[in-house]
Design goal:
Elements lengths: L1 H26 L11 E3 L3 E3 L5 E5 L6 H11 L7 E5 L10 H10 L4 E3 L3 H11 L36 H10 L1 H10 L1 E8 L4 E6 L23 H6 L2 E3 L2 E6 L7 E3 L2 H6 L6 E5 L8 E2 L3 E3 L9 E10 L4 E10 L1
Parallel strand pairs: 1-6, 2-6, 3-4, 4-5, 7-11, 11-13
Antiparallel strand pairs: 3-14, 6-7, 8-9, 8-10, 12-13, 14-15
Helix pairs in contact: 4-5
Length: 324
């Protein structure tokens, strides 16, 4: 009788364990998946062809219809001479995040992308499906952070911003597409216009003077913006550029782009394109171009197109917008 009981017990154990493994694979499969290390900065895109145009586009926020309208009707479509750069937050808020992502991945040769704070939250929501949706959670609640080339084990400071909507979009877009985005997008992009020796940077929140450059007023204390700054800053402490924030939190906090007003003379041929700041809206300054004009709130979707004028020997740019 004992051998029979032993064999039966083993069979029951194996069957129970198998069912448990199947349950885990079904309910928590994302914990078995991961994203590769995401590039903080892509290798520079060097534009030498005078027929090549460069287009920076503000926050799409899942507004696929408006995004397609901008491309097809205002920019005359995409071709081999087009480099279109999305400035982050192309997911969330609008109804068609999955369509936007699919379009990006179907046109990877023409469309490049930087990740915004909301895009990063979608990636984290996928990797951490059981993260409680409560204000009490902290960065220590995140079991599966993201890795960037300059920031390992990255988790946003305010992890409470991950919402049920981020989790829903993560599920709709799916692991395969999110993985492809992590491989295709970066946190910042550099474009070198070789014909005029101009440098264009793109980042969701912005780039501080001297970042990704060999010289600058804070090159020793602040050699490179953090992922947090590149994706989420609106203010910077003018005495400590390593301290950035969404709201003014020190007596020396200023809008980050005002540093370019002061130090722009050191970077005569540099322009920074960014989104993220719909509260300020369209903000076109000499060295910085803010293109988040509130499409998610019924404003406009904005883009800036650079085209080379051979007769004048310079790039000319124009603002293109569609109503949302």
């Amino acid at each position: 009788m004992r051998p029979y009981i032993t064999i039966t017990s083993i069979f029951i154990f194996i069957a129970t364990f198998t069912l448990y493994v199947i349950y885990i694979l079904k309910e928590d499969s994302s914990s078995l998946k991961f994203f590769p290390t995401i590039k903080t900065l892509q290798e520079p895109y060097r534009i030498t062809d005078p027929n090549q145009r460069v287009i920076f586009t503000g926050d799409v926020h899942g507004k696929y219809t408006e995004f397609k309208d901008l491309i097809d009707n205002k920019l005359n479509g995409l071709d081999e001479n087009t480099l279109l750069i999305l400035l982050g937050d192309f997911m969330i808020k609008g109804p068609d995040s999955r369509k936007v992502v699919s379009y990006i991945l179907e046109h990877k040769d023409q469309i490049k992308c930087v990740l915004g704070n909301n895009d990063i939250l979608v990636l984290l929501a996928y990797l951490n499906p059981h993260l409680p949706l409560s204000k009490g959670r902290t960065i220590h609640s995140v079991r599966n952070p993201l890795n960037f080339t300059t920031d390992h084990s990255f988790t946003p400071q305010d992890i409470s911003k991950i919402s049920a909507r981020h989790r829903q979009i993560a599920k709709e877009v799916g692991y395969v597409n999110l993985l492809a985005l992590a491989q295709h997008c970066s946190v910042a992009i550099e474009v070198e216009l070789e014909l005029t020796r101009e440098t264009l940077f793109g980042a969701h929140a912005g780039v501080l003077p001297g970042d990704f450059m060999d010289h600058g007023p804070h090159r020793h204390t602040h050699p490179l913006s953090s992922v947090k700054a590149l994706t989420d800053m609106k203010y910077v402490d003018e005495d400590d550029w390593t301290h950035t924030s969404r709201e003014p939190d020190t007596k020396h906090s200023i809008k980050w782009y005002k540093l370019w007003d002061e130090y722009g003379s050191l970077y005569k041929n540099v322009t920074v394109f960014y989104g993220h700041d719909s509260r300020t809206g369209l903000n076109l300054r000499k060295h910085t171009k803010g293109l988040d004009s509130g499409c998610a709130k019924g404003g406009e979707l904005s883009a800036m197109e650079y085209k080379y004028n051979e007769k004048k020997g310079k790039y000319e740019h124009r603002l293109v917008q569609v109503d949302c």
